[in-house]
Amino acid sequence: MKVMTEKQYERRRRILAAARKLVTEKGYDGLKMRELAEASGVTPKTLYHQFGSKEKLVLIAVEERYRHIYQAIDDAIIDKGIERLYYIIETVAEVTRNNIAYARGLGSILSIKDSAFTTIRMSTYRKALDQIQAEGDFVDWLDVKLLNYLIYSQVTRIYFPWWYDEFSPSNTVNTAKLDVSMALRSVTKGYTFEKTTQIIKSLMKKRQDFTKV
After folding, report:
1. What is the distance between the alpha carbons of residues 96 and 69, in angstroms, rounded to a whole number?
2. Alpha carbons 108 and 106: distance in angstroms, whole number
């Protein structure tokens, strides 16, 4: 593999940063390669030579940021697996909400099935589930891989900007936490069972209508 020079690395960093900025401002469909080239201080030919296409360039730019965010989540030191899972939900919701224009601009990209983004998300959820399994809190017959897919499908909503247009920040997080807690309570014991029961009772006691802002 050819190693980039410091100058080439800086040029690549500049291009990807400009791509993320333009996606935030104009959305994926509104991003034009000529405009990106101008913002990056390179020629359109350079962009196509280095990345091949607009789609590949944007995917690389988004994936790079995704990996940075999720690596920070993975590196967090959290004692219990279920607490890690709640932490993931809360952190992703906060990041999405604070960067709503960026998330909105990437709607078509992030919805791609079986993409690197799906792999990154599921890997982070799996780390939390593996921690719960290591704590001995899963029933013996559980298929953790299948549960991981279930968790992914239940919390997918927190990645999409329309959810934040329709629901309040607390409802966004609480709905995902309630769904996850109800799924896990049926297949766990010990601390995880007690914690998910506590969360379910707490949210139910509030009698909060999760369909309203």
Report:
1. 11
2. 6
Q: What percent of the chain has pLDDT over 70?
A: 92
Distance CA 109, CA 122 (A): 17
pLDDT > 90 in the chain, percent? 50
Query: Which phi and psi angles does 138 have, rounded to 5°?
Result: -95, 145
Say if residues 163 and 172 touch (Cβ distance below 8 Å): yes
Of the candidates 46, 50, 28, 29, which has an alpha carbon nearest to the alpha carbon of residue 37? 46
Q: Which own/partner pairs from 131-135 qualify as long-range (CB within 8 Å, at least 24 positions apart)?
A: 131/80, 131/81, 131/84, 132/80, 132/81, 132/82, 132/85, 132/184, 132/188, 132/192, 133/81, 134/81, 135/80, 135/81, 135/190, 135/191, 135/192
For residues 131 and 80, what is the distance between their CA atoms, to the nearest angstrom?
Answer: 7
Asked if residue 12 lies in contact with residue 64, where contact means CB atoms within 8 angstroms, the answer is no
CA atoms of 80 and 127, how far apart (whole Å): 11
Integer Rg of the chain from CA: 20
pLDDT digits (tens, 9 = 90+) for 21-70: 998 888 888 889 999 999 999 999 999 998 998 889 988 988 888 899 99
